[in-house]
Amino acid sequence: MKNRKNRIVIVILVGLVFFSSSIALLMYSKQSQTKEVNNLLIEVFASSKALKKGVLIGASDIKSIKLPKSYMAFTPLTQSEIIGRYTSVDILAGEPFRKEKISILKPKAPKKRVSRVVEEVEPKELAPKVYNDTITIPLTLFKNIDNTLKKGDFIDIVSIKSKKSKNTEISFETKYIALHIPIDSFVHNYSSVKTFISKDEDENLVAADSVVFKMDPDDIKNLLSLYYKAQELNANRVHNTKKANIGHLWMVKCSEVIDESAQKKKERMLVDYIVQKKRRKFTPRVSISYEN
Fold first, then answer.
1. In a domain, 236, yes or no
2. Residue in 162, 157, 163, 155 with CA at minimum distance from that of residue 141
């Protein structure tokens, strides 16, 4: 009887051992299958270089890489879902493309705020005029040349002419041809340079032969009229003594900021300056009649 009970206990223990072993083997096989799935490599498209926000993504901006599936916390995008889209944020080189980081529409750039302090420091009335036209003039046309002139400087162009006088003494008339003209550049041997004095290939100092101005059309008209007078003077300088002072142009370097009071005085001496005559007030006539 006692031996029978011992046999039953042994059978039960052996059954429990087999049961636990089978469970352990089952769990181990499941873990192995899960690890194999997680270690499975999948194709993902990433950025081939760093891309700024608002860049249109092209074929050269993406590259194919393979990552373990366990690393993917999002659904990878296909090539057609990336090319032709805009980056909605900055993307690093090698970073996989995600749906929330690209957009069909180009993101709008933030509007720049204009500081009031800048407006107070640089009022509109003191800002220099903006010119669009340029004209190249040989420097031999001018009687004086400032060796320190460079790109960005401002000059006034002045003409000195002989003036008719009743006395035997020769008098002169000074007129402004152009006011506050910015220098765009200089020219030496058909090459553009930034300063009047520059260095050549052999490191020798050379002087420019022409200057390029940014000018208003009215100023160009005044300058060209004086230019041809000066050309005529150069041709007849030896034989013509009466016109010995016609068309001599001078350059006067001025400040970058316009002085309003000085500018008004110069404007009165412009070649095309016209004095506005005051109109007389109309006074209606009054007729008086006397009754008989």
1. yes
2. 157
Q: For residue 279, tell me if it sits in a domain.
A: no
Residue 247 near residue 159 (C-beta atoms within 8 A): yes
Q: Does residue 145 lie in a domain region?
A: yes
Q: How far is CA 34 from the centre of its chain?
A: 58
Q: For 213-235, what is the mean pLDDT?
A: 76
CA separation, residue 230 to residues 98, 161, 208, 238, 270 (Å): 71, 11, 20, 14, 18
Residue 95: other Cβ atoms inside 10 A: 13
Q: How many domains does the chain have?
A: 2
Domain identity same for 153 and 248: yes
How confident is the model over 142-194, as pLDDT tens digits? 888 888 899 999 999 988 876 666 666 667 778 888 899 999 999 988 888 99
Please, how many CA atoms are within 13 Å of residue 66, restricted to the half-sphere of its CB? 4
Report field, pTM of the whole predicted structure over 0.85? no
Same domain for 151 and 79: no
Residues 151/185, Cβ–Cβ less than 8 Å = yes
Same domain, 70 and 186: no
Q: What is the pLDDT of residues 25-55, one digit of tens each?
A: 777 666 666 555 556 778 889 999 999 998 9
pLDDT at 238: 45
Instruction: Read off the pLDDT of residues 130-155 as tens digits, 9 standing for 90 and up.
Output: 557 888 888 888 888 888 899 999 99
**Domain check: are 63 and 193 in the same one?**
no
Give me the domain span that covers residue 168.
124-268
Predicted pLDDT at 68: 80
Tell me whether residue 288 is in a domain: no
Phi-psi bin for 173: left (phi > 0), alpha (psi -120 to 50), beta? beta
For residues 174 and 204, membership in a common domain is answered with: yes
CA 202 – CA 195 distance, rounded (Å): 17
